[in-house]
Fold Maleylacetoacetate isomerase.
Amino acid sequence: MENQDTFELYSFWSSSCCQRIIIAAHLKGITLKYNYVDLRARGHHDAKYKDELNPSASVPTLVVHHPDGTKTIIRQSMTILEYFEERFPNQSPLLPPVSAWQDRIKVRDLVNIIAIDVQAPTNSRIAKRVRSVRDNVEDQVGFVRQAFTDGFQAYEALISESSKFSFGDEVSLADVVLVPAVDQALMYKMDLDFVPNLLRVYHSLKELEAFKAGDGKNQGDTPEQFRDASQ
């Protein structure tokens, strides 16, 4: 691996988008330096963070520090994942080879079901807006659960009963985005028996060290009451 650059991640423990980055970094052997942004205390709206790093006032943000003193700032989780894959393609590849372009399409379809159809509407920022419009927490929860249900059913329809993971027997970018999304759905106390293959893949992935490292229960800023006592 190129080791001249250093990688600084601005993160929040329960963010599924941040968890994606941590999982991918562990799979590829990329060392991250962490800066924790407390979303509960509205740290993402701090002028220094929002004005200098991420005008979307969201996490994650990856700052790549170069040896010449310059830096590159990447402000969206999928862009960060694509950057990792393009820069370090031979370290635990997360996409099939370029020659297998049809397989790459299949993996990317799965990725975008989660990144676009599931994560976007279930994001806490959107869920809170639903609640503010409807003035009803049950509507908020119902909206989020329906988005998970629709997306997971689509994902289930595209994965094989015989494959170990989402696409074949090697971890792919689809798996990296799937696990944090399922963790979020379980926080909403969803019964996922309606997607048995997705659930089987999820449990297989949760046994891998990279996915344990990316678990929201195991982050440096995880509140004590949410930490994994077994770690």
About this structure: The chain has two domains: 6-88, 101-214.
